[in-house]
Amino acid sequence: MSSKLIEKSVIDDLASRASGLDQPGGDQRLKSIANRLLGDLFTAIDDLDISMNEVWSAVAYLGQAARNNELGLIAPGIGLEHFLDLRLDEAERRAGLAGGTARTIEGPLYIAGAPLSKGTARLDDGSDKGEVVFMQGQVRDQNGKPVADAIVDVWHANTLGNYSHFDPQQQAYNLRRRIQTDAEGRYSFRSIMPSGYATPPGGSTEQLMFAFGRHGHRPAHIHFFVSAPGYRHLTTQINIEGDEYLFEDFAFGTRNDLIPPVARISDPKVLAERQVQEPFASIDFDFVLMPEVEGVTDTVVERERVSA
Ligand code: MBD
Ligand code: FE
């Protein structure tokens, strides 16, 4: 069959009727988005001569992905979550709001309500014998003023790349904490060095990545939400330098400004001070928050999240 069998007016008319544009009721915003997406889909089917079998295999694929609970993983895998970040970055740049710590994707593995500590916290429960890591820094505003009582909500994977709650082997909220900055805007925590994440073997996301000739690996990373009254909510991550997937993240989350140096500390005096037996890793990282401004897209994202 050759492509382009259908006239544009026929496609436009069907997309418009299918999305209810000729009806008075319903959700006007949804209708106009659906009209556009359906028209684009019908056009793609006609241009690329997408077969009936291909259409139904896509429908089956999406159904299976939904049953596997992997839609939230496919979104970053196909670049959708990163694309939304690119748009928000540009909207901020145009509003004169560039300059804070770079954002990057949240991903599907955040759990709200982690234990709250003041100033400092230990994130790991001691059961995973990974490399000890201390991370510390300051939350500041764009003028360098410390932000006291900011909340640094941090979450990361264990040495197998697994996240508590999703991994039944880990205790509730392992490697998840909220840390309130002190009067100087400082936070610090002790944890274990995470490993990179890989999409579930045999799952829908991996299947799609393999069909694209790609992989489903993320480099080792630590997630953060940083928030304080009067400031724009920051969603970000740091990456661990040296990871083989550092610039090969299947989820497009790596950013050059988010790869702090990792120091290795082995001075016996410092080990004793920190009450650790082995040399450890140390990461300094400061967060710069931008002020809340009216009329610029909010950075607090409402999305379906797994809850504890
Ligand atoms: C992750 O740990 C993650 O951060 C993202 C974005 C996707 C899958 C797993
Ligand atoms: Fe992650």
Walk me through the topology.
Blueprint: H1 8-18, H2 28-48, H3 52-67, H4 71-77, H5 80-94, E1 116-118, E2 120-122, E3 132-141, E4 151-156, E5 176-180, E6 186-192, E7 197-198, H6 204-211, E8 217-218, E9 221-227, E10 234-239, E11 263-265, H7 268-273, E12 280-284, E13 287-289
Helix pairs in contact: 1-2, 4-6
Fe (iii) ion is lined by residues 107, 109, 197, 221, 223.
Descriptive overview:
It is a single chain. This protein is of the alpha/beta class and 308 residues long. It is built from 7 helices and 13 strands. Strands 2, 3, 6, 11, 12 and 13 form a 6-stranded mixed sheet that branches. A 5-stranded mixed sheet has the order 1-5-4-9-10, with no helix packed on it. Strands 7-8 form a two-stranded antiparallel ribbon. The protein starts with 7 loop residues before the first helix and ends in a 19-residue tail after the last strand.
- Compute the number of helices: 7
Q: Could you tell me the radius of gyration in angstroms?
A: 23 Å
Q: How many individual β-strands?
A: 13
Q: Please tell me what the overall shape is.
A: globular
Main beta sheet: 6 strands, mixed
The low-pLDDT segments are none
Query: Any ligands, ions or cofactors bound here, and which?
Result: 3-methylcatechol, fe (iii) ion
Element-by-element helix/strand order? HHHHHEEEEEEEHEEEEHEE
Mean pLDDT over the residues: 97
Q: How far is the first residue's CA from the last residue's CA?
A: 52 Å
Beta-strand percent range:
15-25%
What structural category characterises the helix and strand content? alpha/beta
Percent of residues in helices = 25-40%
